Amino acid sequence: MMLAYLTKYKELMYFLVHKELRIRYRNSLFGFFWTLLEPLGLMVIYTLVFGYLVNLNKGLPEGAYPLYVLSGLIPWTFFNNSVRKGTKALSSNASLIKKVYFPREIFPLTMLISNLVNFIPAFGLIMVMAVVTQQSIQWDQLALLPGIILIQSGFTLGIALLVSVLNVYYRDVEFIVNLLMRAWMYLCPIIYPVKMLFSTDADPIVQQFADLYFLNPMAVIISLYHGIFFPGQGVPAHPTIPGFWVIYTVLVTVILFLGAWYLFRKMNRRVGEVI
Amino acid sequence: MEAIVVENLTKHFRKAYDKTLKGFFISLAKGEKRYKEFTALQDVSFKVKQGESYAIIGKNGAGKSTLFKVLSGIIYPDSGRVEMNGKVAPLIELSAGLSRDLTGAENIRLNCAIFGLSKKRIDEVFDKIVAFSELEEFIHTPVKFYSSGMKARLGFSIAIHIDADIILIDEVLAVGDKDFKKKCYAKMEELRQSGKTLVVVSHSLKPLRKICDRALILDKGKVLDIGEINEMIDKYQEDKKPKKKKKGA
After folding, report:
1. What domain range is B62 assigned to?
2. Are B102 and B146 in contact (CB under 8 A)?
3. Is A171 within 8 Å of chain B by CB?
4. CA distance to partner chain B, nearest, from residue A269 (Å)
5. Does B115 touch chain A if contact means CB atoms closer than 8 Å?
6. Would you say residue B90 lies in a domain?
7. Is the residue at B29 inside a domain?
8. Which of A100, A104, A105 to mutate to test the interface with B (most CBs of B within 10 A)?
9. Are A155 and A217 contacting, i.e. CB atoms less than 8 angstroms apart?
10. What's the pLDDT tens digit per position in B150-184?
């Protein structure tokens, strides 16, 4: 069903993605390089603040904190931008939606694809950083990268579909999403090594809730990326079921996606009049 | 063969009293309905044959635009059946927000892509659209600098070139100069000859006599009458006159 759309409207999606990318970097000197400069800048800031000032680099190899931050931040940025832009994907195209009908799923999907296009060269930057800081790369984990990206894309699209259509009915969603995304970022292993939560000198309250940490699918996904560069910081093994957290994340993604798809279809019926 | 079948179509709109959270809780506490229903279309039924040119006439607020939006798929009906046999192309105004910053050429590509044309097909029709719109000189200018007449010309040119079977036209013919209007009418005639179905929603009646075969009169969301175009226009104008006087008094 979805694939049929993809092929029929591929020209439209190509056009919209192209336009989205062009608009994003219009009137900027560095253009496309902002995709790389922005996470690099954030990496420097986080390294200075959290790596040196707050000392969140416990348990990481010497000098590896910048790479740790970058390898979590870039996948996070992909998710964050897709969801935030996805929230406004329908409401900002109101004038078009009011005039002509075509599958409206295309708008959040376009946001996802244009962010994916940005994500891929940015991931190359992580690889460069790994070489520069002389960290080892786990090739067997790297081979799983397409799968990791697929899971993340599915999860992201599920959320984007949901918030985009909700935002048509209630514009409050936009503000709630912005706030929640910020909280969500701190619930993911981006500025702190995930092992810190499970170490014996962690705060007792943290230890108590540490087992619930990986119920957050994004924490699993970011850890999958970390696993490529830091063997000790990947998704932890479950005592009984091997690969438990990955299976869990895939299941959540599938359920979320189908649920979001169904809800989008349902709420879509009134979008033409309330937008 | 029927190109469009509409049966017992009804559409209500909800008018929210108060969309704020406070208003929501107050009405929730009082246990009252949180919206007021407004019937835009009530039990509308009609059929349009393939190759026919059909007019929908009515006063402002009669439900013409709602019906137009239901036919083009933007709004879902609450009840009733709408069957469109073939690809539908509504004639769109190009002032739409997304396309304002795009050039005329980009708008052609975007609109063709919206209607699912392949890249190859877009390349084929591109020159035809430009030629018909007579906008060769300005085709690489952003649409926001176009006059309303230019936008209408481009919109019309796109709508007739996207291989649609049913073309919906909403009021837009009011703009554009005399020569272009003439060209539009000639083109519409040509489209009809080639078996396309046209539905024109309008309250400018004069041109309808020339283009349309049959008409439907809408009044307050209900079908008043359906019949031959000249008959219907005469009837509509008769109905309209006394009411106009009342309003003035």
Report:
1. 1-82+197-249
2. no
3. no
4. 6
5. yes
6. no
7. yes
8. A100
9. yes
10. 888 888 888 888 888 998 887 656 666 778 778 88
